[in-house]
């Protein structure tokens, strides 16, 4: 067995178990071996063959695996079953409870040297940290999970890479998130490791940072590849996530009916799987869709449903992000005071390192509300803070729009030169090519 312990460790284990059972070396050895062989083995001076260890294990009444590795029989299987239970807790319950389960499983896996189970527990802890909004911890957990897997084939490491990329994306590091997605896709496709699950996970994940960077052409291409890969994937949760992400590119292209149908498919799969956070995200995206299509009443209903579900799950960062989009709908419905109160209530939970895009969105909307109230000083302050956040994140499309808002404000208050500077900045971002500035797009999968 490749991962069995060294001869000295096994020798001490054989001696301990033999003594506990009050057996002599002769009784343990018979009939196939000699007492001298058992003595030499217990002293750690010989590396026992597998047949010898199986004979000794049978005489001692223990499983071969337990004698060779020190692990209780079926431990790895039991840990994998409990990892599935923790995954279910994360899907249907609270992330903090799931994190406790994963931490206990990690400790057990560490104690018995079960590398694959260590990596899986760390991956789960990373997902828990994503949900609670602890992005630094999420990045650390995903990195450690990938490190534990060592030389495992790249498709097996993709979930950890995807987790790292999402954590960086939520932290406002859009370019680095795209780099992680693109470089991994490129390696998979160029080296012929065309694992459909891994590819779908990556193409689905890269859509959001592409959209926020204004790289709509690449987002549409990623969505096209994801849709083509979906029939080859048997994991329903992956397919559901694909439908939810692809809907965003459809909304941008004005394909509202198709986007709504895609979200309906995702929501139905998540209901069947009882994955509540992702189901809440479907309500969130549907609210966004209705808002883009001008159906503000339905948008408000969907976003309030998403907010309530995420709040119940204690998914603090996601709850705050939904609140920003809900505030935009409330403002457009003439409920500006309620929108402003909602934004001020969540701004403390958002920062340049935690939900930067939505933090900028909150300041942008507060600036518009301040302008409506003729408080130009407050409006300018919010616009400038939003610009700083968007420039740091590299969100080109949103930044161009904000420069227009700021330029209009400056022009109305008589600061023409400053307004021209703001417009020039916005034009520079609007005319930037729709790529991530990371070079050519990744190699394409064979579809």
TrEMBL record:
Domain of life: Bacteria
UniProt-annotated stretches for the region Disordered: 427-447
UniProt domain HTH cro/C1-type: residue ranges: 14-67
Protein name according to UniProt: Transcriptional regulator
Gene3D superfamilies with a match to the protein in the record: lambda repressor-like DNA-binding domains, Tetratricopeptide repeat domain
Bias (Low complexity): 431-441
Pfam families named in the record: HTH_3 (PF01381)
Entry-linked InterPro entries: Cro/C1-type_HTH, Lambda_DNA-bd_dom_sf, TPR-like_helical_dom_sf, TPR_rpt
């Amino acid at each position: 067995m490749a991962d069995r312990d060294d001869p000295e460790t096994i020798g001490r284990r054989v001696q301990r178990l033999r003594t506990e059972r009050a057996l002599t070396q002769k009784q343990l050895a018979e009939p196939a071996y000699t007492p001298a062989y058992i003595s030499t083995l217990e002293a750690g001076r010989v590396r026992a063959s597998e047949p010898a260890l199986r004979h000794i294990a049978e005489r001692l009444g223990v499983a071969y695996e337990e004698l060779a590795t020190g692990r209780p029989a079926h431990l790895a299987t039991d840990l994998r079953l409990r990892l599935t239970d923790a995954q279910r807790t994360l899907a249907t319950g609270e992330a903090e409870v799931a994190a406790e389960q994963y931490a206990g499983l990690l400790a057990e896996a560490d104690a018995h040297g079960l590398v694959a189970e260590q990596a899986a527990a760390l991956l789960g802890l990373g997902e828990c940290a994503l949900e609670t909004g602890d992005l630094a911890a999420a990045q650390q957990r995903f990195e450690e999970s990938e490190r534990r897997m060592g030389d495992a084939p790249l498709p097996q490491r993709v979930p950890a890479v995807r987790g790292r990329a999402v954590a960086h994306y939520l932290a406002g590091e859009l370019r680095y998130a795209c780099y992680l997605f693109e470089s991994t896709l490129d390696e998979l496709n160029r080296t012929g490791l065309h694992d459909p699950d891994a590819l779908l996970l990556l193409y689905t994940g890269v859509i959001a940072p592409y959209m926020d960077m204004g790289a709509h052409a690449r987002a549409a291409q990623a969505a096209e590849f994801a849709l083509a890969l979906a029939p080859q994937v048997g994991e329903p949760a992956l397919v559901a996530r694909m439908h939810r992400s692809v809907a965003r590119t459809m909304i941008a292209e004005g394909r509202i009916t198709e986007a709504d149908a895609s979200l309906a498919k995702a929501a139905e799969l998540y209901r069947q799987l009882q994955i509540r956070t992702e189901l809440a995200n479907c309500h969130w995206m549907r609210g966004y869709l209705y808002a883009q299509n001008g159906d503000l009443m339905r948008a408000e209903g969907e976003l309030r449903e998403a907010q309530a579900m995420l709040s119940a799950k204690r998914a603090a960062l996601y709850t705050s992000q939904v609140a920003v989009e809900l505030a935009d709908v409330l403002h457009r419905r003439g409920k500006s005071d309620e929108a402003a109160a909602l934004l001020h209530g969540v701004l403390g939970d958002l920062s340049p390192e935690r939900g930067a895009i939505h933090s900028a969105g909150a300041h942008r909307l507060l600036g518009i509300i301040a302008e409506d109230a003729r408080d130009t000083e407050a409006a300018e302050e919010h616009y400038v803070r939003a610009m700083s956040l968007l420039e740091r994140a590299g969100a080109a499309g949103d930044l161009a729009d904000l420069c227009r808002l700021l330029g209009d404000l400056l022009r109305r208050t008589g600061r023409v030169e400053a307004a021209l500077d703001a417009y020039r900045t916005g034009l520079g971002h609007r005319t930037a090519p729709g790529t991530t500035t990371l070079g050519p797009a990744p190699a394409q999968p064979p579809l």
